[in-house]
Amino acid sequence: MSFRALVARKTDGKITTQLETMEDADLGAGDVTIAIEWSTVNYKDGLAITGAAGVIRNFPLVPGIDLAGVVESSTDPRFAAGDRVVVNSWGLSQTHHGGYAERARVSGDWVIKLPEAISTRHAMAIGTAGYTAMLSVLALEHGGVGPDRGDVLVTGANGGVGSVAIALLSRLGYRVVASTGRLEERDYLTALGASEVIDRAELSAAGRPMGAERWAGAIDSVGSHTLANVLAQTKYRGVVTACGLAQGTDLPTTVLPFIMRNVTLAGIDSVNAPHEVRVEAYERLASDLDLAKLEQTITEVGLADASKVAEAILRGEVRGRTVVDVRR
Predict the structure, then answer these.
(1) Nearest-5° angle of CA 256, CA 262, CA 265?
(2) What is the pLDDT of residue 323?
(3) Are 63 and 8 within 8 A, CB to CB?
(4) What is the Cα–Cα distance from 153 to 157, expressed in whole angstroms?
(5) Contact 290/171 with Cβ under 8 angstroms?
(6) Which domains can be identified in the chain, with CATH numbers?
């Protein structure tokens, strides 16, 4: 069977993408074949398509680290034709064809059945970014940071992780402080549930190793000086989750927040998270994420436009979540 796909090729060190026709024989190894309905654009997709971080390791390859659709066939007994499923990360867009296509074949170990409450479209509005946000909330809870402990900061608030994190935290009763470089988006962030919006400039420059205690916890997708300042201003026994590197991979901090305030820095890995952790995350998303708020974050594009959005996301020009209708 032939199908459309956005294919990335590398020539003379430059990555280009174009719509091509592929055949089932091109899909590669796997025991679950999926008719893809929706994909999405994450920050990592921007890195992949622009070549900024060497995400794609084999060429030619179909990018897209997320996909959602319906199982067409499966030799894995855990899945049957007609199951609605989602796949986040693993080898997608790195060594295995990803979500920017009408079909995929993947390992059954990568596949999660969607809860009834989450459509394939909403699964991609969540995407790796939103699933990472849920993993971060779970880490805050594991560290004992409940709504009664005080404010929770969300950095990179206009992005995918930030948008979903705000919606989740506010639904769970937390008072959320949103940090953004686009203060003109204040209304968008407060509609998602932020109680306070601050300028990212408060956190993005080099700061002191310890500052006044401001928040009980934080979800950071920025890294570098921002994460260092977040740690320096976290309250005693607070928890900060680190899941991104928009500002940089460095962390210019000291041990002081950890040994003087007992702060926990929790790393969040969404790529290789175990199956049971993913299932828990999606079950919690089904119960704790306000889909009406999620809808406010969504922009829809067709398959041919995914590359343009991937480039824009690295420039900080994308708000919320962009879903890709691979059928148009």
Answers:
(1) 85
(2) 98
(3) yes
(4) 9
(5) yes
(6) 2-113+297-325 (3.90.180.10), 129-267 (3.40.50.720)
Which amino acid does the sequence have at 62?
V
How many C-beta neighbours within 10 Å does residue 25 have?
A: 7
pLDDT tens, residue by residue, 143-159:
999 999 999 999 999 99
Q: With a cut of 90, say whether residue 62 has pLDDT above it.
A: yes
Distance CA 277, CA 281 (A): 6
- Encoding tokens for residue 144? 């004992």
Whether the pLDDT of residue 132 is over 90: the answer is: yes
Q: Which two tokens stand for residue 301?
A: 């594009």
Q: Which two tokens stand for residue 116?
A: 């009834």
**Alpha-carbon span 265 to 236, nearest angstrom:** 13
Separation of alpha carbons 190 and 15, rounded Å: 38
- Residue whose C-alpha is closest to residue 39's, from 91, 94, 104, 95: 104
Structure tokens at 153: 């900061």
How far is Cα 147 from Cα 39, in angstroms, rounded to an integer?
Answer: 33
**pLDDT > 90: percent of the chain:** 98
Give the number of residues written for the chain: 328
Q: For residue 52, is pLDDT > 90?
A: no
The label of the residue with tokens 């199956």 reads 275
Give the CB-side neighbour count of residue 192, counting CA atoms within 13 A. 33
Q: What residue type is assigned to position 194 of the chain? A: A
Q: Who's near 320: CB < 8 A, 6+ residues apart? A: 158, 159, 160, 163, 188, 296, 297, 298, 299
Given this model, what pLDDT does residue 53 score? 85
CB atoms within 10 A of CB 276: 8
Taking the alpha carbons at both ends of the chain, their separation in whole angstroms is 18
| pLDDT recorded at residue 99 | 98
Three-state secondary-structure class, residue 9? strand
